[in-house]
Amino acid sequence: MEQVECIIVGGGLAGLSAAYGLASAGVEVMVLERGDYSGAKNVTGGRLYVKPIRGFYPELWEELPYERPIARELVTMMGDGAHTTIEIASDRFAGAKPQSYTVLRAKLDQWLAEKVTEKGAMVVPNMKVDELLRKDGRVIGIRAGGDEIGAQVVIVAEGVLRLLSSEAGLAAEPQAKHHALGYKEVIELPSGVIEDRWHLNPGEGAAQFFMGACTKGMMGGGFLYTNKESISLGMVVGMEDMRRRRDGTESWQLLDEFKELPQIKPLVAGGVVAEYSAHSVPEGGISQVPKLAGDGYLVAGDTAGLSLNALVTVRGMDFAIASGYFAAEAVKRAKKAGDFTAAGLASYEASLRNSFVLKDLETARAIPGFMENPRLFTHYPVAVSRLLESIYTIDERPQAGLFKKAWRGLRRDFMNVATVKDAWSMRKI
Ligand SMILES: Cc1cc2nc3c(=O)[nH]c(=O)nc-3n(C[C@H](O)[C@H](O)[C@H](O)COP(=O)(O)OP(=O)(O)OC[C@H]3O[C@@H](n4cnc5c(N)ncnc54)[C@H](O)[C@@H]3O)c2cc1C
C-alpha cells in the first residue's frame, strides 16, 4: 500500500487549513476532495469572522479574496403584516481591521487550495474517499475508488454529513434534531445598486437576518449578505420542525416564498440568480462534539460539530479554520514524538479546549435547547412589530399617551407567565 505521512479527507476550510499548516512545516500531506475543485460543494451563508483567527497564518488574511467588510448589521422581525428592523452600525465593525467579511466559498476555498499547493501539499479533486481503513482499532489509511493509501494519521474533515466517520465509528450518525437545512441563492446585482439599497459607503457591506413569519413558525430564519457584485440570500430551518410540518410545504419552497415577501422583493429586484445551493448545518452545539482524536486520526470542522448558531451570529468557518490549524499543530507534535496514537495526538483537543472554539461552544451550551422554543420564531417577532406599530399609529380616535400605548402593548404581549419563563431560560444563554 502506498504510504503518505498525512491524508486529509475533505478539501473545505477545515481540511485546507490543516493542510496549509502541515505543508508549511514540510509534512507530507495529501488532501482528497470529492468535488471538481475546493469550493465546488461548500456552502456557507456568507460571513467569516476574522478576528478570532487573525493570529493563525497571519500572512494569509491580508490576501484572502474577501467580498465586503461588514459595517452594518440589520435584524428584521417579521410580524403579521408589520415588521421591525433594528440596525446596528459601529465604526469598529469595519474600519482598519474589520471583524468580519462576506465571502463566496467557490472563490475562497479555491484560492486556499492554491496556497496549500504552493506550500507543497497535494490537493486531489474529484477523489471521493469511500472508507477509512482501520486495523486493530487504529485508522491506518483510506480507500478511494478501489485504491488504498496508508497514512500515519488521517484528518477527517468531510463536513457535516459524517458519512465516513460515523461508518468507522469515530462519530455518531447525524440526527435531524441537531441539524438545520439551508437554502441559498447568489443573486447578481451591480455594486452601486447594493450600496444604494443597503445605504453603504463604497466597498462596505451589510448583513441582514430575518426572523418570524418567513419560517412559518419553524425554528430558523432568513439571511442576506452583500458581496461585491451580488447578494447571498437564504433561509435556514430546523430539520426536525420541517419533518413535523404537515401543510405540504417542501423545504425548498420556503426560499421561493421568502423572495416574494414584500420586505424582500424590492431588495432582490433586477437581480439575476447566479448560483443555487442547499446544505445542512450542525446546530447541536457542544453536546454533539464527538471524540476529537483517536489512534491514527483527528476530526475537524463540521465533522467535529464545530458550528454555532447564536440567533444573530452564525459561526462555523472560523471554527473550521481554527480546528484545521490546531490539527496541524498536533500532527507536527506527534511526528516529532513519533507517536500517532490517541495519546500522541491528545494536544489537539487540549488546544481546542484552551481556544475560543470549545470555550465559545461551552458558553453557548444552552443555546440549542433555548432555540427549541417556538415562541422565539412566532410570538416575539409579531409582538415587537405589533407594539411598535401601535405606537406609530394615528387613527381617527383621540390618541392615548405614549406611555399608555406602550404599557398596553407590553402588558398584552410581554407580561405573562410564558414570557417570564422565557426570560428565565434566557439567563443561561
Ligand atoms: C446555509 C448555511 C449558512 C452558514 N452561514 C455561515 C456563516 O455565515 N458564517 C460561518 O462562519 N459559518 C456559516 N455556516 C457554517 C459553515 O459554512 C461551516 O461550518 C463550514 O463550511 C465548515 O467547513 P468544513 O471544512 O468543516 O466543511 P465543508 O466546507 O463542508 O468541507 C467538507 C469537504 O469535504 C468534502 N468531502 C465530503 N465527503 C468526502 C469524501 N468522502 N471524500 C472526499 N471529500 C469529501 C466535501 O466535498 C467538502 O469540500 C453556514 C452553513 C450553512 C449550510
CATH superfamily of the domain at 2-44 and 51-64 and 105-172 and 290-354: FAD/NAD(P)-binding domain
What proportion strand?
A: 25-35%
Mean pLDDT across all residues, rounded? Answer: 95
* Structural class assignment: alpha/beta
Give the biggest beta sheet: 8 strands, mixed
Radius of gyration: 23 Å
In short:
By secondary structure, this protein is of the alpha/beta class. It has helices at residues 13-24, 58-61, 105-118, 163-167, 191-197, 239-244, 253-260, 265-268, 317-337, 347-354, 356-363, 367-370, 379-391, 402-413, 417-426; strands at residues 2-9, 29-32, 47-49, 70-78, 83-89, 100-102, 122-124, 131-135, 138-144, 147-156, 179-188, 205-212, 220-226, 230-238, 272-282, 293-294, 297-299, 308-309, 314-315.
What key phrases describe this protein's structure?
alpha/beta, eight-stranded mixed β-sheet, FAD/NAD(P)-binding domain, 429 residues, 15 helices, 32% helix, binds flavin-adenine dinucleotide
Plain-language structure description:
- This protein is an alpha/beta fold and 429 residues long.
- Among the domains are: 2-44 and 51-64 and 105-172 and 290-354, FAD/NAD(P)-binding domain (3-Layer(bba) Sandwich), CATH 3.50.50; 374-426.
- It has 15 helices and 19 strands.
- It has helices spanning 13-24, 58-61, 105-118, 163-167, 191-197, 239-244, 253-260, 265-268, 317-337, 347-354, 356-363, 367-370, 379-391, 402-413, 417-426, and strands at residues 2-9, 29-32, 47-49, 70-78, 83-89, 100-102, 122-124, 131-135, 138-144, 147-156, 179-188, 205-212, 220-226, 230-238, 272-282, 293-294, 297-299, 308-309, 314-315.
- The strands form four sheets. Strands 1, 2, 7, 8, 9, 10, 16 and 17 form an eight-stranded mixed β-sheet that branches. A seven-stranded mixed β-sheet has the order 5-4-12-13-14-11-15, sandwiched between helices.
- Helix 13 (379-391) runs antiparallel to helix 14 (402-413).
- The longest helix has 21 residues, at 317-337.
- The chain is elongated, with a radius of gyration of 23 Å.
- Bound molecules: flavin-adenine dinucleotide.
- Flavin-adenine dinucleotide binds next to helix 1, strand 3, strand 11, strand 14 and strand 15.
